[in-house]
Structures
1.
Amino acid sequence: MDTAAFREVMGRFATGLTVVTGLDDTEPVGFTCQSFVSVSLDPPYVAVAPARRSTTWPRIARSGRFCVNVLSDSQQDLAERFAASGGSKFEGVSWTPAPATGSPLLAGSLAWVDCSVELIHDAGDHELILGRVLDLATGEGRPLVYYGSAFATLATEPEVSGGRPAPPGPAEGSQHA
């Protein structure tokens, strides 16, 4: 299989962008992930697929809990920040603890899904993580999209219904670090 052709073809599939977060002891950690999917309604499961070379996922996996933060179109800077290796990714980032797991909920996210790790499966150069949904909510805004190896936004906003509103974010200027 020609990996360049595979990458080009897969790049034609538009995806949303997320930041998967967790706690390593008490330190918040996270990484950008576009491989996120709903798996089951009953019981509620989602899946993420971090790269094997990720140094962040093993730190999250040890806790057995994670939160998927769906990024809004105003959060491209967070997508870039959490995609980079190393550094202090949470410096200056406003977040609150998720109700069920304590994993970071990023202020301004379009939605979040708080999970426990149900299963970790080998998936080539990635791992496939099945998460049991413990809590979730929606926020306001439009999604940040990734298409053809570039950030994009929706040209039109579809009508969205339902969902439980996200709890209010931290007070203006407050931060966890």
2.
Amino acid sequence: MLEKVKSAISRYEMLGRGEEVLVGLSGGADSTALLLSLIELGFKVRAIHVNHNLRGDESLRDQRFCEELCARLGISLSVESVDVSAYAAEKKLSVELAARELRYAAFEKHSLGNKIATAHTLSDSFETALLNLTRGCGVKGLCGIPPRRKNIIRPLIFCTRADVEAYLACKGQNFVTDSTNLSDDCSRNIIRLNVVPELERINPNLLKSFESSLCAISEAEAFIGAEAEKLLGNFDGKVYNFTDVPDGAPLSAAVSRILSAEGVEPSYEKITAVKKIIFGGGRINVKKGVYLSARGGRLSVERDIAEPEEKRVSLGESFEIFGKSVAVTKISPFDISRFNKSDLRYMIDDSRVSGEYVARSFRGTERIRLPERGMSQMVKKLLCGLDPRERKNAVVIADADGAVFVEGIGVSERVCCGANTRSALRIDISDAKGDGK
């Protein structure tokens, strides 16, 4: 096993001679073997144990094992205790993802700028590739776990679980076993406990075959990634230029990177949808408040303007909302004969307003009854001619009883000006740089 660790470190330039490294130590077979092998190879090692507090006494048992092991080896150990359950509930994450986020945050906190070594093996990488394939993935997903990612290194990535156990047996070193790994109640454990053994019945050299295939898959992924980066280089700070770019793996990889940069999981469906607008034009919503728009092969990212939910309206003062300037001016005395219908669409009889008014966007199925329409209508439907971003950013003035004015549509019948109006409010809307409405 030691030769495989040396080979991985050398091939992927994980560590320099005598370099210090922080080892993520759970107390399980893999991380225990990782710690011992790095010490044996002469690296300066520190360790960190993260207690997830998910398994009661068993979690405390693992922590004590790590403390005793490091004390015996003369290795500095940091211990972080985290409340995974509370964090998962707060962030609305699965327990597995919450544990991972907290674990890696602790690793970074204690790394002191050094590399962080995790104990992922070739067996883990194969299980990940199978899991990705089951869920649907591209070439990158078939590569399993990368040997190196930024300051995270995986020196055991060429080692199988059997290699690890044989190494520990040779050293006479015990380890702890996480009881949750023995139950097939999650996707990874189903693959590990049920699927992999059946595949090994077909091919006893399953992991060796995977390692051989991995070389070819990784080379293909590296080539596609390099071509994708070339395509992304055609970016002027606002627009990605994919004009005359053919459909294929490099374009898919480029789109995947754009989606990932926006915090969007780059699924096959989303990548296909983005490529469709690249070739045919259009606009799609990829996550809340984020849109991709394309015309003639030129793709841009658009985001909703982050604004407060509402702003109080004060007479005689202008304010900005959704990147627009809004002014509400009082006209008194008011003479309706001085104004045409177009003007009156932007005027409110202030004696008919209920309570204070605010400016905001429309809300859900909110309705407004326009003069001479004879019925109330959904604000969203009245604005249906606008694209989704413009529709959500249309200014609505509302009082205690609901919408009294919608930008581009007009005022509500219940507050519109008439022959008996003595004082009116005129609403002027322009973009923040000018261009009045």
3.
Amino acid sequence: MQFGAHESISGGVFNAITRGQTATCDTIQIFNKSNNQWRAKKLTQEEIDKYLARIEDTGVTVACSHSSYLINIGSPDDALGEKSRNSLQEEVERCNRLEIPNLVFHPGSHVGSGEEPGMDRVADRCNRVLADVKDNTVALCLETTAGQGSNLGYTFEQIAYMLDRIEDKDHVGVCLDTCHIFAAGYPIIDPKDYKKTMKTFNDVIGIDKLKIIHVNDSKTEFGSKKDRHEHIGEGHIGLDGFRNFVNDRRLKKVPFILETPKEDDLEEDVENLKKLRSLVNGK
């Protein structure tokens, strides 16, 4: 299994690889541009070459990029929706240049316009992005959400609805976030509950669509509908829930990525990854 964490690109995308190595990651997730600005700093060929060389030198791969938090391709506002679509396309293009196989994004919010119309807009804008990016090798991965506000994607059925309407089946997938599905009301702690939840996932979406797992404990209780990440084993999911995931043979090729709080020394990443690895084989 591959375990890793989201690492900062501060000072250049190549620095994320070094941070990943320091944090004992096998693989990492990055932002491929500033996550809180629309404008993206141009990627130079020199920076890309340095980034690819560092991957080769360290053996730390990049499993996925996470899109900007500003993007809302489910928005009923035409101007924001189009701005979001353009930004998502730019991020797909940057992932192609950086040879990152997956771009994780939140399906977005319908902002009171209704869930089905919102999901239709998500699928339509994804179709336009995938049609417009030539020679694309990147999979758009819809992330499961916690159910906060008018956010879309908090049930497996909603994720499946959007996937079904995206035409380029070879370049779409799913990112499952443990904190989010727990907060949304999917039980994962008891082994029997975990098996039932994952059977539902497989029946509704398909395990073959699962590209990335975000491994985050939850600060809030089961079914809270709140997205609050906690360190592994220190939240309401606890170690038992993560033991189920890391010992599921069907997931052995799916990268496990932490998105938990940390300081610049990355000691929290080291500790969380140590905990996850210690759970493998039912320890």
